Amino acid sequence: MKLIGSLTSPYVRKVRIVMAEKKLDYRLELEDVWAADSKITTSNPLAKVPCLIMEDGGAVFDSRVIVEYVDTLSPVGKLIPGTGRERAEVKTWEALADGICDAAILVRLEKTGAFRKDSERCQAWIDRQMAKVTEGLRAASAALDERAWCVGNTCTLADISIGVALGYLDFRFPEIAWKAEYANLAAHAEKLNKRPSFIDTAPPQS
């Protein structure tokens, strides 16, 4: 399999961590979707990464679909419960974590993107998205409480997803002091960041 992605996308990182936890082999093909010569639309008409190209050439996107698919490819480390309440809880954690990333990326694009002049950037829009990040962190901390894992008694996609979201905030928004406010999330992130799958997929710091 081939995974088209970037080293800085939290959604790509989520897929890469899942692939590592599942011990699946794949080839990472880096793609800059913002480049004028990007070929991403030949695989994903929405021009987004990640995009998984399977052995027969078929394409699977986006990250939520990819991780659900690859979790079925190996019995190693089941990350998404098959049915029931726990499955819904894991997928809700993923939605929450992805939502934090969605809002943070919109803030970054509004602040630094080349699509607007400085005079056109909207502070009200930035504030609205940052409020989603703030509420998302509050909700994640409350839901985790003092538990060792987000759902059940082992690492699942819920933990991976929120760990990736927290890592993205550290990467792009180091000024957000979420660790000081949410000690349980900080401890959880520290634990996850010691896993080889998180270490090997950490975004570049330069």
TrEMBL record:
PROSITE patterns: GST_CTER, GST_NTER. Pfam families: GST_C_2 (PF13410), GST_N_2 (PF13409). InterPro entries: Glutathione-S-Trfase_C-like, Glutathione-S-Trfase_C_sf, Glutathione_S-Trfase, Glutathione_S-Trfase_N, Thioredoxin-like_sf. Residues 83-206 form the GST C-terminal domain. Residues 1-78 form the GST N-terminal domain. The lineage of its organism: Bacteria, Pseudomonadati, Pseudomonadota, Betaproteobacteria, Burkholderiales. This is Glutathione S-transferase N-terminal domain-containing protein.
